[in-house]
Design goal:
Elements: H1 2-11, E1 18-20, H2 23-39, H3 44-64, E2 68-77, E3 80-89, E4 97-100, E5 104-107, H4 114-121, E6 124-130, E7 134-142, E8 151-157, E9 167-174, E10 177-185, H5 190-205, H6 211-221, E11 228-236, E12 241-247, E13 251-256, E14 259-262, E15 282-286, E16 291-296, H7 310-313, H8 317-328, E17 335-342
Parallel strand pairs: 6-8
Antiparallel strand pairs: 1-2, 2-3, 3-7, 4-5, 6-7, 8-17, 9-10, 10-11, 11-12, 12-15, 13-14, 13-16, 16-17
Helix pairs in contact: 2-3, 3-4, 5-6
Length: about 350
């Protein structure tokens, strides 16, 4: 059931997704892209690129996923029209990823060579892969390629022997930038996930608020759960600033070439009483184009970091997230990483 909750969140209410069962479903996905393109009078190159992406993603679902879903919608950013496609499934998650060429991804797991094609054709790609739970890939293409575009990726896995992770994450885009969060429900398993799920639900409803007010709303919203620790960031494109609040043992790090900034956490458990009298530390830093934000739960080692590792920092966001998850997980807890490249 928890798996379907995650897929439902990924798909949202805007897509009217179709299930992917067979080749006829793949054809339907391509046709939906063409119909969405016609509704905004999109150019042929844009539409056919997204139709090919739809084919790649749905074929991978047929080959590897337990159950896949596909949706498409027309979008607009700063007056520029585009299309967004989404492919979400019930897993398994993407396996070990490696860099293929300069900008693409080749996967040894569920997405195969199709993911490399998606990166090549799309203007913007977001990936959320949760071991034993599912995969979500969102790809966007715009009529004009001059928009500032960012990459976001999430990779997570549960405590060994569990099928549900107590760690959760979300990002919410807007024309001005995005809000993202990483949450760790106390303990592990379904009850920990209930706490982190609740936190994410409250955050999604209150993402327009100041970060300290979002944290307060989450604190109230999870009081009847185990509680959680939580990190929230807001990136504002126009001012090129990143705000961050960390509650408990969640880490956030910002990298730009050899420079780095590690954000400071406030020691508290969210949901464990009134926090209105606590001094909540909200940091704000300037962000240079190409900077990489890394957030992770305490399922990764305390020493986790990428300072000076330029070869890793140049990789796509999903490759960075998978690298950290594979090389720094403790193996004794749920673990989750969010990576964003701030263009």
């Amino acid at each position: 059931m928890e798996k379907r909750v995650l897929v439902a969140r990924w798909l949202g209410s805007d897509f009217n997704p179709i299930p992917i069962y067979d080749e006829a479903s793949v054809s339907s996905a391509r046709q939906r892209v063409r119909e969405a393109g016609a509704s905004i009078s999109a150019g042929t190159a844009l539409v056919e690129s997204l139709a090919l992406i739809a084919s790649e993603l749905t074929h991978n679902q047929l080959a590897h996923a337990k159950q896949g879903y596909f949706g498409v919608k027309a979008i607009e950013r700063k007056g520029v029209k585009g299309l967004e496609v989404i492919a979400a499934d019930l897993g398994p998650a993407i396996g070990k990823t490696i860099l293929a060429g300069h900008g693409g991804i080749r996967s040894g797991g569920s997405l195969g060579a199709g993911l490399e094609g998606v990166f090549r054709l799309a203007d913007e790609v977001e990936i959320d892969t949760r071991s034993a739970e599912g995969v979500c890939v969102i790809a966007r293409k715009f009529e004009s390629p001059t928009l500032p575009l960012s990459e976001i990726a999430i990779a997570g896995k549960p405590y060994p022997g569990e099928v549900i992770s107590g760690d959760d994450s979300v990002y919410i885009r807007s024309e001005s930038g995005f809000v993202a969060a990483v949450c760790d429900g106390l303990g592990h398993g379904p009850e920990a996930r209930e706490a982190s799920n609740r936190a994410i639900e409250v955050l999604a409803r209150s993402s327009h608020l100041r970060l300290e007010d979002i944290l307060s709303a989450v604190n109230t919203g999870v009081t009847d759960t185990r509680g959680c620790v939580l990190g929230i960031v807001r990136f504002t494109q126009e001012t090129r600033t990143l705000q961050c609040v960390l509650a408990g043992d969640v880490r956030a790090q910002l990298y730009h070439f050899r420079d780095s900034h590690f954000f400071t956490s406030t020691s508290l458990i969210v949901g464990d009483g009134d926090i209105s009298k606590r001094r909540i530390r909200v940091e704000e830093v300037s962000v240079l184009p190409g900077s990489v934000l890394v957030m992770f739960t305490d399922g990764l080692e305390t020493k986790t970091g990428l300072k000076g590792q330029l070869d890793i920092l140049r990789r796509p966001a999903i490759a960075i997230a998978q690298h950290l998850l594979e090389t720094h997980s403790r193996g004794t807890d749920d673990a989750l990483v969010l990576v964003a490249r701030l263009i």
